[in-house]
Amino acid sequence: MKYFKSHFWYHKNQRNGIFLLTILILILQSIIFFGTFSLNQLEDVNQPEIIAFQKQIDSLKEIEIEDRRPKIFPFNPNFISDYKGAQLGMSVIEIDRLFLFRKTNKFITSKQEFQRITKVSDSLLVKIAPYFKFPEWVTKEKKLKTKSNTALNRVENTHKKKSISSIDMNKASAEDFKTIYGIGEKLSERIIKYRSKLQGFSFESQIKEVWGLEEETVEKVLSTFKIIEKPTIRKININTVTFKELLNTPYIDFALCKKIFEYRDEIAVYQNISELKNIKDFPLGKYDRIVLYLMAE
C-alpha cells in the first residue's frame, strides 16, 4: 500500500497544476470535437465538386462490379455442359432436353431450333442467342437452302400463273394437275387413270393412293383442288357378282375376294353389306371405300 500511496501523494501546487492541465485538455478536446462537427454541418454536400467526385466513385464501383461478372464468349450451343448451362441461366430440365436431343446424333442449327428443343424463355434466348456460334457447314447449308427455296418459289409461281379450268378433283384435266409443282406429264396422266378406275374420287385423301405422288406434292394438290361434286358410282350386288367381277373392284385383291366368296357360301346370302365386317381379317380401314362399289340385295 505504501508503494502505491507514494505515487499518488502530491503537494498542493502539484495538485493544482494537474487540475489545470486536465481542464486545459478537456477544453482543447471540446474545441476539436465541436469545431469539426460544426464544419461537417456547415459543409454543402451539393457542391459541384462533391457531386462530380461522388459520380466518379459510383462509376468506378459499377466498373468493378462489371469486371467481376463472368464473361460470355461465343460458343456452339450444341456442346453446352451442365456448368455452362447453369452460368447461362438455364434450368436443369432445359439442359437435360438438350442432352437428350444430342444423344440422337443430331445438331441444332438455329436459335429457333434451340428454343424449340430446350423450351427456354424468350427473355433468356434474347440474352444468350447473340453468343451462339455455329460451325461453317451450318452457315453454308442455310445459304444453300435460301437459294433453293428462292428457286423453288420462282418455279412454283410460274406453275401458278397457268390457268386452271376446274378446281374440282373429279373434273380437273391432266393439264390442270400439271400446274402443281412436282406433277409432270406422267403423274398427271396417272391421276386421271386412277380417277377413272375409282369412277371418281369420293374422298380427297384418295389422291394419296396415286403411285409416285410425294407427300409434299399431295398437300399442294389438296390446297388447290377439292371434291365439289361427288361421283355417281355403279354398285354391284355382292350376292350375284362373279369372282372375276369382284376381283376387278377397287380395293379388293385376290385374297380378300376369296374370303368374301367363302363367307357368302357359309351364310348363303348377305342380308346387309355391313356383314363384310364379320369376315376374318377384313381390312376395316378400307371398309368405307369398298362399300362404295358393293350392295346387298
The CATH architecture of the domain at 141-224: Orthogonal Bundle
Trace the largest sheet across and list its strands: 1-2
Helix content: 55-70%
According to DSSP, the number of beta strands is 2
The number of distinct helices, counting runs of at least 4 residues, comes to 14
Structural class from helices and strands?
A: mainly alpha
- Report the CATH topology name of the domain at 141-224: DNA polymerase, domain 1
Could you describe the 3D structure shown?
It is a single chain. The chain has 297 residues and is mostly helical. Among the domains are: 47 residues, no CATH class; 84 residues, DNA polymerase, domain 1, CATH 1.10.150; 60 residues, Photosystem II 12 kDa extrinsic protein (DNA polymerase, domain 1), CATH 1.10.150. The protein is built from 14 helices and 2 strands. The protein has a two-stranded parallel ribbon with strand order 1-2. It starts with a helix and ends with a strand.
Keywords:
single chain; rod-shaped; about 55% helix; 14 helices; DNA polymerase, domain 1; mainly alpha; about 300 residues
What is the compact description of this entry?
The protein has 297 residues and is mainly α. 56% of the residues lie in helices and 1% in strands.
